[in-house]
Specification:
Elements lengths: L1 E4 L5 H11 L10 H16 L9 E7 L6 E11 L7 E11 L4 E11 L5 E9 L8 H15 L7 E5 L11 H9 L5 H9 L4 H6 L5 E2 L5 H5 L9 H10 L2 E6 L6 E6 L4 H5 L1 E7 L12 E5 L7 E4 L3 E3 L4 E4 L1 H6 L7 E6 L2 H5 L20 E2 L1
Parallel strand pairs: 6-7, 11-15
Antiparallel strand pairs: 1-2, 2-3, 3-6, 4-5, 4-9, 5-8, 6-17, 7-10, 9-10, 11-16, 12-13, 12-16, 14-15
Keywords: Acyltransferase, Arginine metabolism, Transferase
Protein name: Arginine N-succinyltransferase
Pfam families: AstA
Amino acid sequence: MIIRPVAPSDLEGLYQIAEESGPGFTSLMPDRDALARKVEHARASFSRPVGLPSDEHYLFVLEDTETGALMGTTGIDAVAGQVRPLYHFRHSRQLHHSHFLGLRRQFHTLTRCNHYRGCTEICSLYLRPAFRRANAGKLLSKVRFLFMAQYPERFTPTVIAEMRGVSDHLGRSPFWNWLRRHFVDLEFASVTQLVGAGHTEFIEELMPAGPLYTHLMDDAARAVIGQVHPDTRPALAMLEKEGFRHRGFVDLFDAGPTVECPLKDIASVRAARPYQLMTGTARPEHRSGQPVIIANGRTEGFRATITDQCRVCPEEHTVTVPDALARRLDLSEQAEVWLLPLTPDQARRPQPATQSHSLSAEGYGARPYAL
């Protein structure tokens, strides 16, 4: 399997992913025209010289190299919430206190806001259930941070991720069911389709701006505030290991949490390193057999994969890979490559100075992902 930028030939595969992912996955909607525009936007973003990030959108696909099928997607919005407001509810507490009566009571509230303005957003992570295999989910998640480590000038100091909230197998959200009864009488699928297509005017027109007191909600709606869809739990767990934290902001429609982390503090960004490529065959005694993500040093022609065939020489800042892998990544001798261990802690472990080393990582269970 290999990660690469999306191409026009991927349109039908993207449409299948958009259909499979269901309501709530607003970054990819089953609309061929909208998907075609997204592909063109991504292609222009990868090829554009960038000094300061703006409206670039980087959409990657995970390809099965044996069949050519699309296994999944992952993406980055360089600057979110700038051209179009990025709305959330701020989940907070309010204290009501009467000195005269001697009464005090604390309430949980949701207040509409657009707190995240001009942040980089990771998005569009989806691994198709038919392609569940070891390390595929980790590759989709971590390759974005490897790309950010290579090109930090293309991104902002803060990175966020909107996590998919709770909905059932029919795409019904308990949180939205309550909001719908009181404010916007539309199906959850219709609302997410509007948002995915960029039609957000109804938020200012119909969605409540003042505080919503959560104790007035029904139990089903209140229970899912800040919770994630079952298919999203592995993705959230990985982001938490990277350093992402929930600061109290949740989605307007399914109440899924938004998490954030400074770019410089993301574990995988800190662990990624450039090396000079040497081709050939590393002897078995020089390979640990543990996987590492390897990427070429390009934007428009970006390629990345997971391999256990690397021999890293830290003293010389070189890495040896088999000729076949170099061809898959479109690499030539002496080219710059980037490596990221699947477990950042492994990259910081002391190693004997007289040996060549392979960066190591732990495996990851094959499960579906949706962000």
